[in-house]
Amino acid sequence: MNQEGKKDLRMGKFIIQGNPIPKLRPRFGDGRCYDTQKQQKLIAGITLQSQHNGIFFSGPLKIKMDFFLPFGQSRKIPLDGKFHIFTPDLSNLVKFIEDVANGILYKDDCIIASLIAAKWFSKNPRTEITVMEIYDPTSPE
Fold first, then answer.
1. pTM over cut 0.90
2. Low-confidence residues of the chain, pLDDT below 50?
3. Is the previous residue joined to 26 through a cis bond, with omega within 30 degrees of 0?
4. In angstroms, rounded to a whole number, what is the distance separating the alpha carbons of residues 39 and 70?
5. 135 by DSSP, 3-state: which?
6. Domains plus CATH for the chain?
7. Angle at 100 between CA 108 and CA 61, to 5 degrees
8. Neighbour-count burial of 126, counting CB atoms closer than 10 A to its CB (0-12 exposed, 13-18 middle, 19+ buried)
9. Using CA atoms, how far apart are residues 77 and 62, in angstroms rounded to an integer?
10. Counting Cβ atoms within 10 Å, is residue 93 exposed (0-12), middle (13-18) or buried (19+)?
């Protein structure tokens, strides 16, 4: 609590270096469902865990995700900072990060109340995630 008696809101910024990864559909075989991205999620989760310094957000949360994707080989090279309007889909990129952050940054992605996301071209592929607690005046805390 701060001097005015309001809850101190927390914020954190996290960066995952490398090409952003979209969430893929599950695979089925032998009557089972397989997660083909188990290793990718583990690596991204370890990266997030190494940066979060014990910050665990309790919500409601506002999250901003910026996905910086490399230039395509067959396309003319645009300037850094231009919107990326090709595959992968933005919603699949967001879902991958939401799943990876479960249990690391927050208990469950259902506490995300606001989301802003964008895809950009960049020579330095990465994913930048900013997580902010939102003040909730109806909260008993």
1. no
2. 1-3, 5
3. no
4. 22
5. coil
6. 11-23+36-119 (3.30.1330)
7. 45
8. middle
9. 33
10. buried
